Amino acid sequence: xxxxxxxxxxxxxxxxxxxxxxxxxxxxxxxxxxxxxxxxxxxxxxxxxxxxxxxxxxxxxxxxxxxxxxxxxxxxxxxxxxxxxxxxxxxxxxxxxxxxxxxxxxxxxxxxxxxxxxxxxxxxxxxxxxxxxxxxxxxxxxxxxxxxxxxxxxxxxxxxxxxxxxxxxxxxxxxxxxxxxxxxxxxxxxxxxxxxxxxxxxxxxxxxxxxxxxxxxxxxxxxxxxxxxxxxxxxxxxxxxxxxxxxxxxxxxxxxxxxxxxxxxxxxxxxxxxxxxxxxxxxxxxxxxxxxxxxxxxxxxxxxxxxxxxxxxxxxxxxxxxxxxxxxxxxxxxxxxxxxxxxxxxxxxxxxxxxxxxxxxxxxxxxxxxxxxxxxxxxxxxxxxxxxxxxxxxxxxxxxxxxxxxxxxxxxxxxxxxxxxxxxxxxxxxxxxxxxxxxxxxxxxxxxxxxxxxxxxxxxxxxxxxxxxxxxxxxxxxxxxxxxxxxxxxxxxxxxxxxxxxxxxxxxxxxxxxxxxxxx
Length: 520
Fold this sequence. Notes:
mainly alpha; Growth Hormone, Chain: A; 2 domains; globular; MFS
Protein backbone atom coordinates (compact mmCIF):
# COMPACT_ATOMS: atom_id res chain seq x y z
CA UNK A 1 0.00 0.00 0.00
CA UNK A 2 2.95 2.34 0.63
CA UNK A 3 4.15 1.70 -2.92
CA UNK A 4 0.68 2.25 -4.37
CA UNK A 5 0.33 5.49 -2.40
CA UNK A 6 3.63 6.98 -3.59
CA UNK A 7 2.74 5.92 -7.14
CA UNK A 8 -0.48 7.97 -6.94
CA UNK A 9 1.40 10.91 -5.38
CA UNK A 10 4.02 11.17 -8.13
CA UNK A 11 1.98 10.14 -11.18
CA UNK A 12 1.01 13.77 -12.04
CA UNK A 13 4.62 15.04 -12.01
CA UNK A 14 5.93 13.89 -15.40
CA UNK A 15 2.48 13.67 -17.00
CA UNK A 16 2.19 17.43 -16.49
CA UNK A 17 5.85 18.12 -17.33
CA UNK A 18 5.67 16.52 -20.79
CA UNK A 19 2.35 18.31 -21.45
CA UNK A 20 3.55 21.84 -20.68
CA UNK A 21 3.88 22.85 -24.33
CA UNK A 22 0.33 21.62 -25.09
CA UNK A 23 -1.04 23.40 -22.00
CA UNK A 24 0.78 26.62 -22.93
CA UNK A 25 -0.62 26.51 -26.46
CA UNK A 26 -4.19 25.68 -25.39
CA UNK A 27 -4.44 28.22 -22.55
CA UNK A 28 -2.10 30.90 -23.99
CA UNK A 29 -0.05 31.11 -20.80
CA UNK A 30 3.11 33.06 -20.06
CA UNK A 31 6.28 31.29 -18.90
CA UNK A 32 5.66 32.38 -15.28
CA UNK A 33 2.06 31.11 -15.44
CA UNK A 34 3.38 27.84 -16.80
CA UNK A 35 5.88 27.60 -13.94
CA UNK A 36 2.94 27.92 -11.53
CA UNK A 37 1.33 24.83 -13.10
CA UNK A 38 4.21 22.80 -11.67
CA UNK A 39 4.60 24.84 -8.50
CA UNK A 40 0.88 24.76 -7.68
CA UNK A 41 1.44 21.03 -7.14
CA UNK A 42 4.82 21.18 -5.39
CA UNK A 43 4.11 24.13 -3.06
CA UNK A 44 1.29 22.53 -1.00
CA UNK A 45 3.34 19.35 -0.87
CA UNK A 46 6.31 21.21 0.57
CA UNK A 47 4.23 23.37 2.92
CA UNK A 48 2.06 20.66 4.48
CA UNK A 49 4.13 17.49 4.35
CA UNK A 50 5.41 17.95 7.92
CA UNK A 51 1.92 18.57 9.27
CA UNK A 52 0.63 15.48 7.49
CA UNK A 53 3.38 13.40 9.07
CA UNK A 54 2.58 14.65 12.58
CA UNK A 55 -1.18 14.28 11.99
CA UNK A 56 -0.63 10.67 10.97
CA UNK A 57 1.49 9.99 14.05
CA UNK A 58 -1.19 11.45 16.33
CA UNK A 59 -4.50 10.45 14.71
CA UNK A 60 -3.53 7.40 12.66
CA UNK A 61 -1.55 6.90 9.48
CA UNK A 62 -4.30 4.98 7.69
CA UNK A 63 -6.67 7.95 8.06
CA UNK A 64 -4.09 10.37 6.60
CA UNK A 65 -3.20 7.88 3.87
CA UNK A 66 -6.85 7.57 2.75
CA UNK A 67 -7.33 11.36 2.97
CA UNK A 68 -4.30 11.80 0.70
CA UNK A 69 -5.72 9.39 -1.86
CA UNK A 70 -9.09 11.18 -1.85
CA UNK A 71 -7.46 14.62 -2.21
CA UNK A 72 -5.41 13.30 -5.14
CA UNK A 73 -8.59 12.03 -6.78
CA UNK A 74 -10.46 15.33 -6.26
CA UNK A 75 -7.48 17.28 -7.59
CA UNK A 76 -7.30 15.10 -10.70
CA UNK A 77 -11.04 15.56 -11.30
CA UNK A 78 -10.71 19.35 -10.95
CA UNK A 79 -7.85 19.48 -13.46
CA UNK A 80 -9.69 17.09 -15.79
CA UNK A 81 -12.52 19.62 -16.14
CA UNK A 82 -10.29 22.74 -16.24
CA UNK A 83 -10.96 25.37 -18.91
CA UNK A 84 -8.81 28.11 -17.38
CA UNK A 85 -5.34 28.35 -15.93
CA UNK A 86 -6.83 29.23 -12.52
CA UNK A 87 -8.85 26.02 -12.33
CA UNK A 88 -5.81 24.01 -13.42
CA UNK A 89 -3.78 25.61 -10.60
CA UNK A 90 -6.57 24.68 -8.16
CA UNK A 91 -6.59 21.06 -9.28
CA UNK A 92 -2.82 20.86 -9.07
CA UNK A 93 -2.89 22.36 -5.57
CA UNK A 94 -5.41 19.76 -4.36
CA UNK A 95 -3.28 16.98 -5.85
CA UNK A 96 -0.26 18.49 -4.11
CA UNK A 97 -2.10 18.39 -0.78
CA UNK A 98 -2.87 14.73 -1.43
CA UNK A 99 0.79 14.05 -2.17
CA UNK A 100 1.75 15.88 1.05
CA UNK A 101 -0.41 13.45 3.00
CA UNK A 102 0.84 10.38 1.12
CA UNK A 103 4.62 10.87 1.15
CA UNK A 104 5.38 10.88 4.91
CA UNK A 105 2.61 8.37 5.60
CA UNK A 106 3.96 5.81 3.13
CA UNK A 107 7.47 6.01 4.61
CA UNK A 108 6.05 5.84 8.14
CA UNK A 109 4.11 2.69 7.20
CA UNK A 110 7.35 1.07 6.03
CA UNK A 111 9.22 2.23 9.14
CA UNK A 112 6.45 0.81 11.36
CA UNK A 113 6.41 -2.54 9.57
CA UNK A 114 10.23 -2.89 9.28
CA UNK A 115 11.97 -1.44 12.37
CA UNK A 116 15.40 -2.90 11.47
CA UNK A 117 17.10 -0.13 9.45
CA UNK A 118 19.30 -2.63 7.60
CA UNK A 119 16.31 -4.62 6.39
CA UNK A 120 14.29 -1.42 5.86
CA UNK A 121 16.70 -0.23 3.15
CA UNK A 122 15.47 -2.97 0.80
CA UNK A 123 11.84 -1.89 1.22
CA UNK A 124 12.65 1.79 0.83
CA UNK A 125 14.40 0.76 -2.39
CA UNK A 126 11.13 -0.80 -3.61
CA UNK A 127 9.30 2.36 -2.48
CA UNK A 128 11.76 4.50 -4.47
CA UNK A 129 11.28 2.25 -7.50
CA UNK A 130 7.53 2.87 -7.37
CA UNK A 131 8.14 6.62 -7.05
CA UNK A 132 10.39 6.57 -10.12
CA UNK A 133 8.01 4.15 -11.85
CA UNK A 134 5.23 6.73 -11.51
CA UNK A 135 7.51 9.32 -13.11
CA UNK A 136 8.29 6.92 -15.95
CA UNK A 137 4.73 5.73 -16.58
CA UNK A 138 3.17 9.18 -16.19
CA UNK A 139 5.07 10.72 -19.08
CA UNK A 140 4.43 7.87 -21.53
CA UNK A 141 0.73 7.68 -20.63
CA UNK A 142 0.36 11.45 -21.07
CA UNK A 143 2.12 11.30 -24.42
CA UNK A 144 -0.12 8.48 -25.64
CA UNK A 145 -3.25 10.31 -24.48
CA UNK A 146 -2.25 13.61 -26.09
CA UNK A 147 -1.70 11.84 -29.39
CA UNK A 148 -5.47 11.31 -29.57
CA UNK A 149 -7.36 13.69 -27.25
CA UNK A 150 -7.06 16.97 -25.32
CA UNK A 151 -4.42 17.55 -22.63
CA UNK A 152 -7.11 17.52 -19.94
CA UNK A 153 -7.48 13.74 -20.23
CA UNK A 154 -4.01 13.15 -18.77
CA UNK A 155 -5.65 13.78 -15.39
CA UNK A 156 -8.04 10.86 -15.82
CA UNK A 157 -5.32 8.30 -15.08
CA UNK A 158 -4.81 8.98 -11.31
CA UNK A 159 -8.54 8.81 -10.56
CA UNK A 160 -9.18 5.03 -10.78
CA UNK A 161 -5.80 4.20 -9.23
CA UNK A 162 -6.50 6.42 -6.21
CA UNK A 163 -10.06 5.13 -5.76
CA UNK A 164 -8.99 1.48 -5.97
CA UNK A 165 -6.28 2.21 -3.38
CA UNK A 166 -8.92 3.74 -1.07
CA UNK A 167 -11.08 0.61 -1.28
CA UNK A 168 -8.12 -1.69 -0.54
CA UNK A 169 -6.98 0.52 2.36
CA UNK A 170 -10.40 0.48 3.99
CA UNK A 171 -10.51 -3.31 3.83
CA UNK A 172 -6.91 -4.40 4.39
CA UNK A 173 -4.63 -1.67 5.79
CA UNK A 174 -4.14 -1.76 9.58
CA UNK A 175 -4.03 1.46 11.60
CA UNK A 176 -0.79 2.60 13.24
CA UNK A 177 0.40 5.55 15.30
CA UNK A 178 3.71 6.81 16.66
CA UNK A 179 4.74 5.32 20.05
CA UNK A 180 4.84 8.77 21.67
CA UNK A 181 2.37 11.04 19.91
CA UNK A 182 2.30 14.78 20.48
CA UNK A 183 -0.15 17.31 19.16
CA UNK A 184 -0.34 19.45 16.05
CA UNK A 185 1.99 22.44 15.96
CA UNK A 186 -0.19 25.12 14.35
CA UNK A 187 2.23 28.07 14.84
CA UNK A 188 4.97 26.02 13.16
CA UNK A 189 2.63 24.99 10.34
CA UNK A 190 1.46 28.55 9.63
CA UNK A 191 4.94 30.08 9.65
CA UNK A 192 6.39 27.25 7.50
CA UNK A 193 3.61 27.55 4.91
CA UNK A 194 3.98 31.34 4.78
CA UNK A 195 7.77 31.13 4.39
CA UNK A 196 7.69 28.55 1.59
CA UNK A 197 4.81 30.13 -0.36
CA UNK A 198 6.17 33.67 -0.12
CA UNK A 199 9.67 32.57 -1.15
CA UNK A 200 8.52 30.70 -4.27
CA UNK A 201 6.05 33.46 -5.22
CA UNK A 202 8.78 36.08 -4.91
CA UNK A 203 11.23 34.10 -7.04
CA UNK A 204 8.69 33.37 -9.82
CA UNK A 205 7.30 36.90 -10.01
CA UNK A 206 10.74 38.47 -9.65
CA UNK A 207 12.02 36.38 -12.53
CA UNK A 208 9.01 37.25 -14.69
CA UNK A 209 9.27 40.97 -13.94
CA UNK A 210 11.74 42.63 -11.61
CA UNK A 211 13.04 41.77 -8.15
CA UNK A 212 12.59 45.46 -7.33
CA UNK A 213 8.79 45.32 -7.74
CA UNK A 214 6.90 46.08 -4.55
CA UNK A 215 5.01 42.77 -4.39
CA UNK A 216 8.24 40.81 -4.93
CA UNK A 217 10.11 42.71 -2.18
CA UNK A 218 7.16 42.23 0.20
CA UNK A 219 6.95 38.50 -0.61
CA UNK A 220 10.65 37.93 0.01
CA UNK A 221 10.51 39.95 3.25
CA UNK A 222 7.55 37.84 4.42
CA UNK A 223 9.55 34.69 3.57
CA UNK A 224 12.52 35.82 5.69
CA UNK A 225 10.40 36.92 8.67
CA UNK A 226 8.27 33.76 8.55
CA UNK A 227 11.38 31.59 8.33
CA UNK A 228 12.88 33.22 11.41
CA UNK A 229 9.56 32.88 13.29
CA UNK A 230 9.40 29.20 12.32
CA UNK A 231 12.83 28.55 13.84
CA UNK A 232 11.92 30.45 17.03
CA UNK A 233 8.57 28.66 17.28
CA UNK A 234 10.06 25.19 16.82
CA UNK A 235 12.79 25.84 19.41
CA UNK A 236 10.19 26.81 22.03
CA UNK A 237 7.42 24.34 21.17
CA UNK A 238 6.80 21.36 23.47
CA UNK A 239 5.58 19.40 20.42
CA UNK A 240 7.45 20.81 17.43
CA UNK A 241 6.43 19.94 13.89
CA UNK A 242 10.14 19.64 13.04
CA UNK A 243 12.40 19.14 16.05
CA UNK A 244 15.48 21.19 15.18
CA UNK A 245 17.59 18.83 17.29
CA UNK A 246 17.33 16.42 14.34
CA UNK A 247 19.96 18.57 12.64
CA UNK A 248 22.48 17.44 15.26
CA UNK A 249 22.60 14.20 13.28
CA UNK A 250 25.20 14.61 10.51
CA UNK A 251 23.41 11.97 8.44
CA UNK A 252 20.05 13.75 8.60
CA UNK A 253 21.58 17.18 7.98
CA UNK A 254 23.62 15.97 5.02
CA UNK A 255 20.81 14.10 3.29
CA UNK A 256 18.36 16.96 3.86
CA UNK A 257 20.69 19.56 2.34
CA UNK A 258 21.60 17.23 -0.52
CA UNK A 259 17.92 16.49 -1.22
CA UNK A 260 16.96 20.18 -1.33
CA UNK A 261 19.89 21.26 -3.51
CA UNK A 262 19.61 18.30 -5.86
CA UNK A 263 15.87 18.72 -6.38
CA UNK A 264 16.27 22.46 -6.96
CA UNK A 265 18.62 21.71 -9.82
CA UNK A 266 16.96 18.57 -11.19
CA UNK A 267 13.24 19.43 -11.04
CA UNK A 268 14.03 22.86 -12.45
CA UNK A 269 16.03 21.29 -15.26
CA UNK A 270 13.24 18.81 -16.09
CA UNK A 271 10.97 21.84 -16.54
CA UNK A 272 13.48 23.36 -18.97
CA UNK A 273 14.19 20.03 -20.72
CA UNK A 274 10.49 19.44 -21.44
CA UNK A 275 10.23 22.89 -23.04
CA UNK A 276 13.41 22.19 -25.05
CA UNK A 277 11.91 19.07 -26.59
CA UNK A 278 8.64 20.85 -27.35
CA UNK A 279 9.74 24.35 -28.42
CA UNK A 280 13.17 23.73 -29.96
CA UNK A 281 13.08 20.18 -31.28
CA UNK A 282 9.35 20.54 -32.08
CA UNK A 283 8.53 17.08 -30.71
CA UNK A 284 5.04 16.00 -29.77
CA UNK A 285 4.24 14.98 -26.21
CA UNK A 286 4.86 11.28 -26.82
CA UNK A 287 8.27 12.02 -28.33
CA UNK A 288 9.14 14.06 -25.27
CA UNK A 289 7.89 11.31 -22.96
CA UNK A 290 10.05 8.62 -24.61
CA UNK A 291 13.15 10.75 -24.12
CA UNK A 292 12.37 11.43 -20.47
CA UNK A 293 11.69 7.71 -20.04
CA UNK A 294 15.39 7.07 -20.65
CA UNK A 295 16.12 9.08 -17.47
CA UNK A 296 13.36 7.71 -15.26
CA UNK A 297 13.75 4.14 -16.54
CA UNK A 298 17.46 4.07 -15.75
CA UNK A 299 16.82 5.63 -12.33
CA UNK A 300 14.09 3.06 -11.66
CA UNK A 301 16.40 0.10 -12.30
CA UNK A 302 19.36 1.46 -10.37
CA UNK A 303 17.29 2.54 -7.33
CA UNK A 304 16.07 -1.04 -6.87
CA UNK A 305 19.62 -2.36 -6.99
CA UNK A 306 20.79 0.39 -4.61
CA UNK A 307 18.19 -0.61 -2.02
CA UNK A 308 19.53 -4.17 -1.97
CA UNK A 309 23.23 -3.34 -1.70
CA UNK A 310 23.25 -0.22 0.46
CA UNK A 311 23.75 -2.21 3.67
CA UNK A 312 27.06 -3.43 2.17
CA UNK A 313 28.20 -0.14 0.61
CA UNK A 314 28.70 3.25 2.20
CA UNK A 315 25.79 5.62 1.45
CA UNK A 316 28.38 8.40 1.21
CA UNK A 317 30.05 6.57 -1.66
CA UNK A 318 26.76 5.86 -3.44
CA UNK A 319 25.31 9.36 -3.02
CA UNK A 320 28.51 11.19 -3.94
CA UNK A 321 29.14 8.99 -6.98
CA UNK A 322 25.55 9.40 -8.17
CA UNK A 323 25.66 13.18 -7.83
CA UNK A 324 28.96 13.38 -9.73
CA UNK A 325 27.39 11.28 -12.52
CA UNK A 326 24.45 13.69 -12.67
CA UNK A 327 26.85 16.66 -12.80
CA UNK A 328 28.79 15.08 -15.67
CA UNK A 329 25.57 14.31 -17.58
CA UNK A 330 24.35 17.91 -17.25
CA UNK A 331 27.66 19.26 -18.54
CA UNK A 332 27.60 16.93 -21.57
CA UNK A 333 24.15 18.31 -22.46
CA UNK A 334 25.71 21.74 -23.03
CA UNK A 335 26.44 20.57 -26.58
CA UNK A 336 22.79 19.78 -27.37
CA UNK A 337 21.25 21.78 -30.20
CA UNK A 338 18.03 22.05 -32.17
CA UNK A 339 18.95 19.13 -34.46
CA UNK A 340 20.68 16.85 -31.92
CA UNK A 341 19.49 13.30 -32.59
CA UNK A 342 17.86 11.01 -30.07
CA UNK A 343 20.82 8.66 -30.34
CA UNK A 344 23.24 11.44 -29.44
CA UNK A 345 21.08 12.54 -26.51
CA UNK A 346 20.27 9.06 -25.20
CA UNK A 347 23.61 8.23 -23.58
CA UNK A 348 23.64 11.60 -21.79
CA UNK A 349 20.09 11.11 -20.53
CA UNK A 350 20.99 7.54 -19.52
CA UNK A 351 23.94 8.79 -17.46
CA UNK A 352 21.64 11.33 -15.82
CA UNK A 353 19.15 8.61 -14.86
CA UNK A 354 21.81 6.25 -13.54
CA UNK A 355 23.14 8.98 -11.25
CA UNK A 356 19.66 9.87 -9.97
CA UNK A 357 18.86 6.25 -9.22
CA UNK A 358 22.07 5.83 -7.28
CA UNK A 359 21.14 8.80 -5.04
CA UNK A 360 17.40 8.41 -4.39
CA UNK A 361 17.24 5.28 -2.23
CA UNK A 362 20.31 5.77 0.03
CA UNK A 363 19.44 9.44 0.53
CA UNK A 364 15.96 8.61 1.89
CA UNK A 365 17.06 5.53 3.84
CA UNK A 366 19.99 7.36 5.48
CA UNK A 367 17.77 10.24 6.61
CA UNK A 368 15.44 7.77 8.34
CA UNK A 369 18.18 5.50 9.75
CA UNK A 370 20.31 8.31 11.17
CA UNK A 371 17.84 9.27 13.92
CA UNK A 372 16.21 7.29 16.76
CA UNK A 373 13.47 4.95 15.56
CA UNK A 374 10.53 6.82 17.18
CA UNK A 375 11.57 9.92 15.19
CA UNK A 376 11.82 8.11 11.85
CA UNK A 377 8.46 9.50 10.69
CA UNK A 378 9.47 13.09 11.50
CA UNK A 379 12.84 12.56 9.81
CA UNK A 380 11.19 11.17 6.66
CA UNK A 381 8.69 14.04 6.58
CA UNK A 382 11.43 16.63 7.16
CA UNK A 383 13.65 15.19 4.45
CA UNK A 384 10.72 15.13 2.01
CA UNK A 385 9.68 18.67 2.97
CA UNK A 386 13.09 20.15 2.21
CA UNK A 387 13.25 18.07 -0.96
CA UNK A 388 9.95 19.54 -2.12
CA UNK A 389 11.05 23.07 -1.22
CA UNK A 390 13.96 22.53 -3.60
CA UNK A 391 11.56 21.06 -6.15
CA UNK A 392 9.28 24.11 -5.86
CA UNK A 393 12.16 26.54 -6.23
CA UNK A 394 13.61 24.64 -9.21
CA UNK A 395 11.09 25.64 -11.92
CA UNK A 396 10.89 29.13 -10.39
CA UNK A 397 14.65 29.79 -10.37
CA UNK A 398 15.56 28.06 -13.62
CA UNK A 399 12.42 29.29 -15.38
CA UNK A 400 13.40 32.86 -14.47
CA UNK A 401 16.98 32.32 -15.66
CA UNK A 402 15.78 30.71 -18.89
CA UNK A 403 13.38 33.52 -19.73
CA UNK A 404 15.79 36.32 -18.81
CA UNK A 405 18.70 34.93 -20.84
CA UNK A 406 16.58 33.90 -23.84
CA UNK A 407 14.72 37.20 -24.11
CA UNK A 408 17.93 39.23 -23.84
CA UNK A 409 19.64 37.25 -26.62
CA UNK A 410 16.63 37.02 -28.97
CA UNK A 411 17.12 40.39 -30.80
CA UNK A 412 20.64 39.36 -31.83
CA UNK A 413 19.46 35.98 -33.13
CA UNK A 414 16.59 37.64 -35.05
CA UNK A 415 19.07 39.97 -36.72
CA UNK A 416 21.36 37.05 -37.61
CA UNK A 417 18.38 35.23 -39.16
CA UNK A 418 17.48 38.21 -41.32
CA UNK A 419 14.38 39.21 -39.37
CA UNK A 420 14.23 42.95 -38.78
CA UNK A 421 11.90 45.92 -38.79
CA UNK A 422 8.35 45.73 -37.45
CA UNK A 423 8.27 41.93 -37.26
CA UNK A 424 11.43 41.80 -35.13
CA UNK A 425 10.04 44.48 -32.81
CA UNK A 426 6.73 42.64 -32.56
CA UNK A 427 8.38 39.30 -31.70
CA UNK A 428 10.76 40.89 -29.18
CA UNK A 429 7.97 42.78 -27.41
CA UNK A 430 5.72 39.71 -27.26
CA UNK A 431 8.43 37.49 -25.77
CA UNK A 432 9.46 40.17 -23.27
CA UNK A 433 5.85 40.50 -22.06
CA UNK A 434 4.71 36.87 -22.19
CA UNK A 435 7.74 34.62 -22.70
CA UNK A 436 8.95 32.64 -25.70
CA UNK A 437 5.71 30.66 -25.91
CA UNK A 438 3.93 33.82 -27.12
CA UNK A 439 5.50 33.34 -30.56
CA UNK A 440 3.28 30.31 -31.16
CA UNK A 441 0.12 32.46 -31.33
CA UNK A 442 1.59 35.13 -33.66
CA UNK A 443 1.04 35.49 -37.42
CA UNK A 444 4.64 35.36 -38.66
CA UNK A 445 4.07 35.26 -42.42
CA UNK A 446 6.77 34.04 -44.83
CA UNK A 447 9.55 34.51 -42.26
CA UNK A 448 8.08 32.04 -39.79
CA UNK A 449 10.96 29.62 -40.29
CA UNK A 450 13.60 32.28 -39.57
CA UNK A 451 11.70 33.49 -36.48
CA UNK A 452 11.38 30.00 -35.04
CA UNK A 453 15.04 29.35 -35.71
CA UNK A 454 15.98 32.51 -33.82
CA UNK A 455 13.63 31.62 -30.96
CA UNK A 456 15.20 28.16 -30.78
CA UNK A 457 18.72 29.63 -30.64
CA UNK A 458 17.65 32.08 -27.90
CA UNK A 459 16.08 29.23 -25.93
CA UNK A 460 19.32 27.24 -26.21
CA UNK A 461 21.23 30.20 -24.75
CA UNK A 462 18.89 30.15 -21.76
CA UNK A 463 19.02 26.37 -21.46
CA UNK A 464 22.82 26.35 -21.39
CA UNK A 465 22.78 28.86 -18.53
CA UNK A 466 20.31 26.59 -16.70
CA UNK A 467 22.54 23.57 -17.32
CA UNK A 468 25.55 25.35 -15.84
CA UNK A 469 23.54 26.39 -12.76
CA UNK A 470 22.05 22.89 -12.33
CA UNK A 471 25.46 21.24 -12.70
CA UNK A 472 26.92 23.66 -10.14
CA UNK A 473 24.14 22.90 -7.66
CA UNK A 474 24.53 19.14 -8.12
CA UNK A 475 28.31 19.35 -7.66
CA UNK A 476 27.75 21.37 -4.47
CA UNK A 477 25.42 18.62 -3.24
CA UNK A 478 28.13 16.02 -4.00
CA UNK A 479 30.70 17.96 -1.97
CA UNK A 480 28.29 18.29 0.97
CA UNK A 481 27.50 14.56 0.86
CA UNK A 482 31.18 13.64 0.85
CA UNK A 483 32.07 16.02 3.68
CA UNK A 484 29.07 15.54 5.99
CA UNK A 485 28.17 11.86 5.65
CA UNK A 486 30.07 9.40 7.81
CA UNK A 487 31.66 6.74 5.55
CA UNK A 488 30.19 3.89 7.61
CA UNK A 489 26.73 5.39 8.23
CA UNK A 490 23.92 3.11 7.09
CA UNK A 491 26.19 0.10 6.52
CA UNK A 492 26.36 -1.32 10.04
CA UNK A 493 25.25 1.45 12.36
CA UNK A 494 23.11 4.57 12.56
CA UNK A 495 23.92 7.85 14.26
CA UNK A 496 21.85 9.44 16.94
CA UNK A 497 20.91 13.10 17.07
CA UNK A 498 24.06 14.02 18.91
CA UNK A 499 26.20 12.58 16.13
CA UNK A 500 27.39 9.64 18.25
CA UNK A 501 27.08 5.93 17.43
CA UNK A 502 23.60 4.71 18.19
CA UNK A 503 22.65 1.44 19.77
CA UNK A 504 22.95 -1.55 17.50
CA UNK A 505 19.25 -2.34 17.53
CA UNK A 506 16.99 0.54 16.44
CA UNK A 507 14.51 -0.12 19.24
CA UNK A 508 17.02 -0.35 22.10
CA UNK A 509 16.13 1.34 25.35
CA UNK A 510 19.49 3.11 25.31
CA UNK A 511 18.36 5.22 22.39
CA UNK A 512 16.60 8.32 23.62
CA UNK A 513 14.16 10.67 22.03
CA UNK A 514 15.17 14.12 20.93
CA UNK A 515 14.81 16.73 23.62
CA UNK A 516 13.36 14.39 26.27
CA UNK A 517 16.12 12.32 27.87
CA UNK A 518 13.57 9.54 28.44
CA UNK A 519 13.80 6.05 26.93
CA UNK A 520 12.23 5.84 23.47
